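User: quick one, sequence for these tokens?
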């Protein structure tokens, strides 16, 4: 049964009981009892009636009871139903709006520094951990060079037409030699001029398939390895994580899993996955608990929104991760407003 159909199955009293249980749980983090709800219902209802309604909601998989004598709390299915069908989204509070605008309103930005400040502001406002995926550098390439550092380490040096230089240490394919590195560099430079990194990567994929016999095998592997490194490294797309201590404090009962989550993020393993989460269309997306593999281990929720350039192309994302009892009604508009403002500023830094 879909969430829409499940919601349609609830009568007005069941909806109100369900909504009040979820809202109270998101506020306190504690299971909610029938006597508490009796005082808050819009119509006079006995505790026994409310208990019966809560049992029905539990049988539908929307609530559960952590202990036999305890109140009820929403399940992951219940939270998803609430977010999709019953949640009231608040407008961005004036203090939050002011903080976001002050963070972003400092003239033509150094993109890295600006997005680092955005991460700090989101973490402070939401008391969660913030995730910011910075844009890829898409200036045309002027020169590429591979430098051997040791048998198991090499350096990629990338010079862009705007003067920026990026480099990254990576593990080369086994058996590489100085000559194969020179050959790889020469081959790339003969095709790099005027192309961005993404364009060159696409062209190289075609060239390698068409000319495999003409390219030394080790050089081809080096080219492929080098581009894989650029595509996944923080020189090309960097994930900024701020406020991890907030989540560690919230999830004290499961610190090892939360630490594992942030260790993975800080090693940048899941940047591509993080961006993929945002590509289901414009606007904010909410992932609860095990709904995505990136955060399922920690039992956390993610509120994430892409930001776009002037061509309406997704170039990065901002998000907040926290316990499943996030204040979604407040955090969703904060993330949405921040993403829109970031996209606007990066598309037109002068205003």
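Assistant:
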């Amino acid at each position: 049964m879909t969430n829409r159909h499940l919601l349609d199955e609830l009568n007005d009293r069941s909806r109100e009981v369900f909504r009040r249980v979820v809202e109270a749980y998101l506020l306190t983090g504690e299971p909610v009892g029938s006597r508490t709800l009796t005082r808050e219902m819009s119509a006079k209802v006995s505790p026994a009636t409310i208990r019966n309604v809560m049992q029905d909601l539990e049988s539908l998989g929307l609530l559960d009871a952590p202990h036999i004598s305890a109140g009820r709390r929403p399940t992951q299915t219940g939270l998803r139903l609430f977010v999709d069908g019953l949640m009231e989204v608040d407008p961005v509070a004036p203090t939050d709006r002011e903080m976001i605008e002050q963070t972003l309103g400092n003239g033509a930005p150094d993109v890295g520094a600006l997005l680092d400040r955005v991460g700090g502001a989101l973490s402070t406002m939401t008391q969660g951990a913030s995730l910011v995926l910075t844009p890829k550098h898409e200036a045309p390439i002027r020169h590429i060079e591979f430098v051997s550092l040791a048998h198991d380490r090499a350096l990629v040096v990338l010079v862009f037409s705007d003067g920026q230089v990026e480099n990254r240490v990576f593990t080369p394919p086994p058996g590489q030699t100085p000559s194969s590195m020179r050959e790889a560099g020469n081959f790339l430079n003969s095709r790099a001029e005027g192309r961005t990194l993404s364009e060159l990567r696409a062209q190289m994929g075609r060239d390698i398939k068409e000319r495999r016999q003409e390219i030394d095998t080790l050089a081809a592997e080096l080219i492929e390895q080098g581009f894989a490194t650029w595509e996944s490294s923080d020189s090309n797309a960097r994930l900024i994580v701020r406020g991890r201590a907030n989540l560690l404090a919230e999830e004290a009962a499961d610190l090892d899993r939360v630490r594992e989550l942030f260790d993975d993020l800080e090693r940048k393993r899941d940047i591509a996955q993080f961006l993929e989460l945002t590509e289901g269309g414009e606007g904010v997306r909410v992932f609860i608990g095990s709904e995505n593999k990136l955060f399922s281990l920690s039992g956390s929720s993610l509120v994430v929104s892409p930001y776009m350039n002037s061509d309406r192309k997704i170039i990065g994302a901002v998000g907040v991760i926290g316990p499943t009892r996030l204040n979604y009604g407040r955090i969703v508009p904060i993330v949405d407003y921040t993403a829109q403002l970031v996209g606007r500023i990066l598309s037109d830094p002068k205003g």
